[in-house]
Amino acid sequence: MSPPARPKGEYRNAEHEGSSVSLPRVRIVSPALAAANNGNWHTAARWQRFLAPVARVEIVGVDDAEANDSAPADLLIALHARRSAAPIARWRERRPDAPLALVLTGTDLYRDLDVDPGARHSLQCASRIVVLQEQGLARLDAASRAKAVVIVQSAPTLRAARAPGDADFVAVGHLREEKDPETLWRAARLLAGDATAPTIAHIGAALDARLADDARATMAACPSYRWLGALSHAAARRTIARARALVHPSRMEGGANVVVEAIRSGVPVLASRIDGNVGLLGAAYDGYFPVGDADALAALARRFCADAPFADCLRAQCAAREPLFRPAAERRAVRALVDGLLAARVGAR
Length: 349
What we know:
Elements lengths: L13 H4 L7 E6 L8 H13 L4 E6 L13 E5 L5 H10 L5 E5 L2 H9 L1 H9 L2 E4 L10 H5 L1 E3 L18 E4 L8 H12 L7 E4 L5 H13 L3 E5 L3 H10 L2 E4 L8 H8 L4 E4 L2 H7 L6 E2 L4 H13 L1 H14 L5 H22 L1
Parallel strand pairs: 1-2, 1-3, 3-4, 4-5, 5-6, 7-8, 7-10, 8-9, 10-11, 11-12
Helix pairs in contact: 3-5, 7-8, 7-12
C-alpha cells in the first residue's frame, strides 16, 4: 500500500521518520534579535516556531547575515526591505532562481519605499512580498502587488482579571518617534487635571535619551502616568491583559502585534487612525483618534471611562475581529507561503 500523500505545506522529517527526504532549510533574516524584544524579533521567532515541524529554520541577524551567506539554504525570509536590503541583494545575486520572501514590517512600507533605493530593490528581488494587514497592499506598485500576500499576525489568548493598582490604560512601544509617545504624554497631562484621572502605564525601552527625559518629566507632572521602561514580553502581555484598554498612538506601523495581543486578551484599543491600525481593527471601528491629536485622545479616553455602552461597543467590535488573530490562521498562512515558494522552485527544475 502506498503511503498517504502529505497535506500541502507539510514536509517529512527524515530524522524522525527514517526517510531519505530531508527537511528544507529556511533562513530568516531579521533586523532585530531577542535582546531587542521588538516586533521584528517576535515575528521572526513566531514564524520559526510555526515552521519548525516542517523545515529546518535558523534566524540570523542582519549584521551576521553575510557570514552565513554560503551556508546551505533553500529559502530566505527577510524582514524589513531597507534594513535587510544587503542580505536580500546578496541572496538574489548568488542564487538567481532561489525563492525569497520579503516581509514588510512597518517603516519600510510606510516610509522607506518612498525614499530608499535599497528598499525598492528589495521589492524587485523578492519572489513573494508579505504585508501584515490588508491596507498595506495599497502602498505597493502594481508589479509588487501582483506578488504580494497578506499574512495577519497572531497571538495566544491571555485573559487576566483586573486587580487593585492595575492601570486603566496601557501603552506599549519603545520610546521612538514612530510610536509617537509625545501625543500620549500630552494627553496624560490633559487627563491629569480631571477630578478622577485615569491611570496610564507606559511600557517601552528608552531608545532616545530626549524621549526618556520627557517620560520622566511627564511622570513628575502627572502622578497618574507611570513609565515602566522595558519589560519582558510575558510581563508586558500580563499588563495589557489587566488593563481596561490599550492606547496605541503610533504614527507608522506595518501591523502592530501589540494590537493583536490586546484583542486576544479581550482588551479594546484606542488607536491612531493610520493604515497599520485600520488594517487590523477595520475601517468602521469607533476607537480611533487623529494622528498626533492629544486633545482627541484625551476626549476618547474620558468617553471610554464615563460611557459604559461606548466601552462595551469597542469591546464587541474587537471581539468580532479576534478570530483573525488566532495562531492557527497565521500558521497555515506561513506554511502555505513556504510551501508555495519551495514547490515553485521544484517545478522550475
